[in-house]
Design goal:
With about 290 residues, this protein is an alpha+beta fold. It folds into three domains: about 70 residues, no CATH class; about 80 residues; about 110 residues, no CATH class. Helix content is about 50%, strand content about 20%. It is built from seven helices and nine strands; from the N terminus they run H-H-H-H-E-H-H-E-E-E-E-E-E-E-H-E. The strands form two sheets. A five-stranded mixed beta sheet has the order 6-8-7-5-9, covered by helices on one side. The longest helix is centred in the N-terminal third of the chain and has 27 residues. The protein is globular and about 70 Å long. It starts with a helix and ends in a 15-residue tail after the last strand.
Length: about 290
């Protein structure tokens, strides 16, 4: 039953969006087709409600019942957007998420701030331009105004998430490494072998056991583990990692804070990811 309802939902949602696009574009849609589409949407909603009630009666919590009915990628995408929007409130209130007493926070938003502010400015210009160009189509104009304003809010929210969700060096020596609102990895102190300053430019060629959280095409801290931790992607893909590369605005300060909590003293290094030693210059082949 659950698979049937999910299949109907996969058909109903794209169909509803397609019909909405046709109506906004002025395409005439047969009344029977509209009636069938709306009836399918109502049927899917009623079936989802009935399944939710049935799961609750079996003893599942509300969160567990939703997890049974909604695919994980959809839940995670919706959760990500909610966290991004909530970050705007934290940003205004100057509150940080997940930083407890005794913890030390290190930001990672400065390197990308100029890019996101520039993108926000472009989105605002586009919003104004479309609003003027679509003046002759008031319905379409209003729809695009809502979409464009939400896009501006979302872009600002991405920056707010990076500001309000910093990396954290815990009091016990553990680490919480994050990338905005979409990656959050907790590393217990007992699993950390080393933490060192390690500037890597243009990363992207690490092994399958490595997690890279680059900001502005760079990472500046490398954490090596003696036991793997689970890294979860935005859409829910899970994999064990034994190396974590990430960027911090004050990378040396983060390493020093970790050392103060019992960590070893690693030697700093500067590397360029994806580049090996320069080949030796021998004589030309024709010599």
């Amino acid at each position: 039953m659950k698979k049937v309802v999910r299949g109907l939902a996969y058909a109903a949602v794209p169909g509803e969006l397609a019909l909405a696009g046709c109506l906004l574009a002025g395409v005439r849609v047969p009344g029977r087709l509209l009636l069938v589409a709306e009836a399918l949407v109502v049927l899917v909603v009623l079936a989802e409600v009935l399944l939710f009630v049935r799961l609750r009666r079996r003893g599942l919590t509300g969160r567990e019942a939703v997890a049974e009915l909604v695919p994980e990628p959809v839940r995670r995408m919706l959760g990500h957007e909610l966290r991004v929007l909530a970050s705007l409130g934290r940003w205004v209130a100057r509150r940080r998420h997940g930083v407890g007493p005794g913890d030390v926070a290190f930001g990672h938003a400065k390197a990308q701030a100029a890019l996101l502010y520039g993108f926000t400015f472009v989105c605002v210009v586009e919003t104004v331009g479309l609003h003027v160009l679509l003046a002759a189509l008031p319905v379409v104009q209003k729809v695009f105004l809502v979409v464009d304003v939400y896009t501006v809010v979302l872009v600002l929210g991405l920056h707010a998430a990076a500001v309000t969700r910093p990396h954290v060096v815990r009091e016990d020596g553990g680490l919480r490494v994050r990338s905005g609102a979409h990656v959050d990895v907790t590393i217990p102190a007992g699993r950390i072998a080393s933490v060192r300053y390690d500037l890597r430019l243009n990363p992207g060629q690490a092994g399958d056991d490595a997690l890279e959280l680059a900001v502005a095409s760079q990472t500046s801290v490398t954490v090596r583990l003696n036991e793997p931790v689970e890294a979860v992607s935005l859409l829910g893909k899970r994999r064990p990692v034994t190396v974590v590369h990430f960027h911090a605005d004050d990378a040396r300060g983060l390493v020093a804070a970790w050392r103060e909590r019992g960590g070893a003293d690693p030697a700093p290094s500067v590397t360029r990811a994806g580049t090996g030693p320069s080949p030796s210059r021998g004589l030309p082949a024709s010599a």
